[in-house]
Amino acid sequence: MARISTYPVDTDVTGTDKVIGTDATGLITKNYTLNGISSWMNASGSLKIVGQNNYSYLVDDAVDGIISGPSPNANFGNITNLKFTKTSAAGVDVSAYLATLVGRQVILARLDNPNNFGVYKLVSFIVDPADNDYFDAVLSLTVANGNITRNKYYGFAVYPNLPSDGDLNFTFTQPTPATTWSITHNLGKNPSVSVVDSAGTLVHGEVDYINDNSLILTFSAAFSGKAYLN
């Protein structure tokens, strides 16, 4: 084999370019494309981004950074609790940083397919009383899509596009007369509610807060109109 220094230098690098390496399982020399290496780094959480911490979810050979709590293939919209190791997939203790995110919007997204994600308000993040190597997180759903999958890696980070501070509000329109209005507002709080009928007249009813993101309004008579939530 020629010396590496004698090979020409390629300044036009593409994803289909190949490098030579050794397969760890069979100790066999193989070609690896740059696209393949990049995909592995993304899928395994090997890339480091400030503000984002990567975690494995029930990865068989992972020691640090395991997320547990929901059952495999659980819908992101049904996740309310997660258990984190204090170290991320990089083996670094990030618990002090994650504790600063309490009260803020956070996102948990699959690294190799970000369409599987959940955006939540981080309600609390405390040491597991049974094992101080773990932390228990309580989450309040904002919006979600897809399922959490075994043997995949996920990024956990603050989500700046949905601020948890400030005057959040939501307007709900009830197009047909009804005595019960079910409203999903995703405000992450129990908002104040004002209701008007289709003529703009203020109407009073009973408010039942289901959780921080939904409520039910009940009235003595059916009507259409709008509800203003702040």
Q: Show unreliable segments.
A: none
Strand order across the largest sheet: 3-4-5-8-7-6-9
> What percent of residues adopt helix (DSSP H or I)?
under 10%
Number of domains: 2
Give the helix/strand class: mainly beta
**Total helical elements:** 2
The arrangement of helices and strands along the chain is EEHEEEHEEEEEEEEE
- Quick one: overall form? elongated
- State the total count of DSSP E strands: 14
Salient structural properties:
47% strand, 2 domains, mainly beta, 7% helix, 2 helices, 5-stranded antiparallel sheet, 230 residues
Account of the 3D structure:
The chain has 2 helices and 14 strands. It is mostly beta strands. The protein has 2 domains: 130 residues, no CATH class; 60 residues. The longest helix has 11 residues. It is elongated, with a radius of gyration of 24 Å. The termini are far apart. The mean pLDDT is 81.
Topology:
Layout (H helix, E strand, L loop, with lengths): L17 E5 L6 E5 H11 L7 E6 L8 E3 L12 E5 L9 H5 L5 E6 L6 E12 L2 E15 L6 E7 L11 E15 L8 E5 L4 E2 L2 E6 L2 E16 L1
Parallel strand pairs: 3-4
Antiparallel strand pairs: 1-2, 3-9, 4-5, 5-8, 6-7, 6-9, 7-8, 10-14, 11-12, 11-14, 13-14
How would you concisely characterize the structure shown here?
With 230 residues, the protein is mainly beta. The protein has helices at residues 34-44, 95-99, and strands spanning 18-22, 29-33, 52-57, 66-68, 81-85, 105-110, 117-128, 131-145, 152-158, 170-184, 193-197, 202-203, 206-211, 214-229.
